[in-house]
Design a protein that fits this description.
alpha+beta, globular, binds cytidine-5'-monophosphate, binds magnesium ion
């Protein structure tokens, strides 16, 4: 019997001058501000990792990579994602990702011209084709100009 799973995750970080802006494993060149974080502050990869874990009710990334643990300081978020996929594999067995739908909320800079690169990077990290990785952008309409946020849904199937 097929075992379909939906996952959902989100993340937010405060923005500050002099920090790199990393979204979905892509560093956005020329941004004045980036996320303040213990790690690289990649909200999209953090929300994606939580979405994958939530699909199988396996907790969240803070459970596996506690922010208080210095081992995980400045850890590459792509590495977090890889380890999360390994955890799921170990605990639930093989699974396939059908598609990913991600939203990044950021007032500036505009991100449209980076969409293809972010989709390609996420697709490579997940072993999918870019056509299965939807990435949309929204401003907060001034409600959260000092923050970057991401929300991600995934559809998975236990194989
Ligand atoms: O938030 P708002 O509806 O005003 O966004 C309008 C459009 O601007 C979005 O649909 C998206 O195409 C683009 N956008 C973007 N980069 C952002 C925010 C919005 O490319 N950081
Ligand atoms: Mg985060």
């Amino acid at each position: 019997m097929s075992d379909w799973r939906i996952g959902f995750g989100e993340d937010a970080h405060r923005l500050a001058e002099g920090r790199p802006l990393v979204i979905g494993g892509v560093t956005i060149a020329g941004s004045q501000r980036g996320a303040v974080a213990h790690s690289d502050g990649d909200v999209l990869l953090h929300a994606l990792a939580d979405a994958l874990l939530s699909a199988f009710a396996l907790g969240d990334i803070g459970h596996y990579f506690p922010p208080s643990d210095p081992t995980y300081k400045d850890m590459d978020s792509a590495e977090i994602l890889q380890q999360v996929m390994q955890v799921i594999q170990e605990k639930t067995g093989p699974f396939t990702i059908q598609n990913v739908a991600a939203v990044v909320i950021l007032d500036t800079p505009k991100l449209g011209r980076h969409r293809a690169q972010i989709q390609a990077r996420l697709a490579a990290l997940l072993g999918l084709s870019s056509e299965r990785v939807g990435v949309t952008f929204k401003t907060s309409e001034g409600l959260a100009p000092e923050h970057i946020q991401a929300r991600v849904t995934v559809l998975l199937q236990r194989s």
